[in-house]
Amino acid sequence: MGISFPEGFLWGAAGSAHQIEGNNVASDLWALESRLPERSGDACDSYHRWPEDLDIVRDLGLGAYRFSVEWARIEPVEGEVSRAQLAHYRRIVDGCLERGLVPVVTLHHFTSPLWFQREGGWLADAAVDRFRRYVRAVLPILDGVPWVCTINEPNMVAMTAKAIKEGRREEGVAGAMAAPDQALADALIAAHRAAREELGAAGLRSGWTIANQNFEAVDGARAERDAWAWPREEQFLEAAKGDDFVGVQAYTRVRIGRDGALPVPDGARRTLMGWEFYPEALADAVRHTARLLPGVPILVTENGVATADDAERVEYTRAALAGLHAAIAEGADVRGYLHWSLLDNYEWGSWAPTFGLVEVDRETFARTVKPSARWLGDVARANAL
Ligand code: FCB
User: DSSP state, 101?
Assistant: First the structure.
């Protein structure tokens, strides 16, 4: 007998528009990619091949698919909403429903339209109104979507924006980055609230998805840990109080000493991201989120590992799910698990870190299902490890 998950537990896989669609030419990142090691280019061509992706998810036995709609396509020029792009994304929602897959839709996953960036990004006076207007434009295609994520990893967005502004390319784990400007954090929180207002008025359940870094105090540096965690993570969790759900995204941990984030210890096992191989991260993140947000249902919206060794992906995921099961047994209200990611996709500047359950040929776009995908599908069908 395996260890069973709650009845109705959602099993799925995730991706995001810029990382899989290809040619997201009106976005801010497209313009910036010449400064990155690799460009997204055609990506996985999921803009055209999404039916094939959905077929794979269904055939594996998974029940949910998380994807994002791309603001830069929907509103490529300020105030000009593309009906055709909205219809495109509605077809994906319908494609999920027709296949019996639960669509989990993210409205903002890291990229913004280039015009929005040029007009001052999240720091512009009009930023929140602009985001609200975009959310309103998307509302009609969200009918039947039970999980709407407003902004993906606002804590990462805030920290990355600061790094870009200062011309730094951050390496290593997100949790070791410089704290975001508070004005940026405040703007993102206000944008989330505005989006929730619009979505709630339309009867849609929404939340946002936080990058959980699992900050751990080392050598008694508890106060330093708390001071480190607040601007980089906990203020964003706090802002999810009263939301319909919160998305937990966890990959690794970050140890905090007296002087801040410590490097991954020498000799520690690492993933292709350079992060510590630490599957316990998921249970830690769920417990932490459940403690901070009592009464808010949790959806694991991302968890996975960058590895070229698919057996290692199974090892990581099995351990992460065992931990998740334990956290649920202790009382955490977790509604589902979405693996990051469905496809080997564009990892924000590089194609090297392969997180996918499915390999994608970079020239033909042919998809090859990996054994880890079949393994996860079996877990999903059994609803048990
Ligand atoms: C998260 C992002 C996701 C992906 C994974 C590895 O921070 O939300 O797009 O890059 O990390």
Answer: P
Residue 146 has pLDDT above 60, yes or no: yes
Which residue's alpha carbon is at the smallest distance from atom 7 of ligand 1? Answer: 211
pLDDT digits (tens, 9 = 90+) for 340-378: 999 999 999 999 999 999 999 999 999 999 999 999 999
User: Omega before 341 cis (within 30°)?
Assistant: yes
pLDDT for the residue numbered 171? 66
Give mean pLDDT, residues 78-98.
98
Closest CA to 209 of 176, 240, 241, 242: 240
The whole-number pLDDT of residue 235 equals 98
Q: What residues contact 191, with CB distance under 8 A and at least 6 apart?
A: 122, 127, 128, 131, 132, 150, 151
Q: Which of 186, 198, 265, 271 is nearest to 231 (CA)?
A: 186
Report how far residue 268's alpha carbon sits from residue 286's, in angstroms, rounded to the nearest whole number: 23
**What pLDDT, on the 0 to 100 scale, is given for residue 375?**
98
Does the C-beta of 301 come closer than 6 Å to ligand 1?
Answer: no
Asked if 86 and 141 count as a contact pair (C-beta separation under 8 A), the reply is yes
Q: Is 288 helix (H, G, I), strand (E, B) or coil?
A: helix
Q: 10-382 has which fold?
A: TIM Barrel (3.20.20)
Cβ-based neighbours of 114, under 8 Å, separated by 6 or more:
26, 27, 28, 30, 31, 72
Pocket test for ligand 1, best of 213, 340, 346 (most atoms within 8 A of CB): 340
Answer yes or no: is pLDDT of 174 > 80.
no
d(CA 232, CA 182): 10
DSSP string over 250-271: E---EEEETTEEPPPPTT--B-
Structural domain boundaries of the chain? 10-382
Q: Is 61 left (phi over 0), alpha (psi -120 to 50) or beta?
A: left
Q: What is the pLDDT of residue 236?
A: 98
Closest CA to 64 of 286, 316, 277, 247: 247
Residue 246 token pair: 């919160």
| Mean per-residue pLDDT, 67-91 | 98
> Residue 378 Cα, ligand 1 centroid: separation in angstroms?
25
Ligand 1 contact via 346 beta carbon (within 6 Å): no
Q: Residue 101 C-alpha to ligand 1 middle, in angstroms? A: 22
> Is the pLDDT confidence value at 179 over 70?
yes
* Residue type, position 118, single letter: R
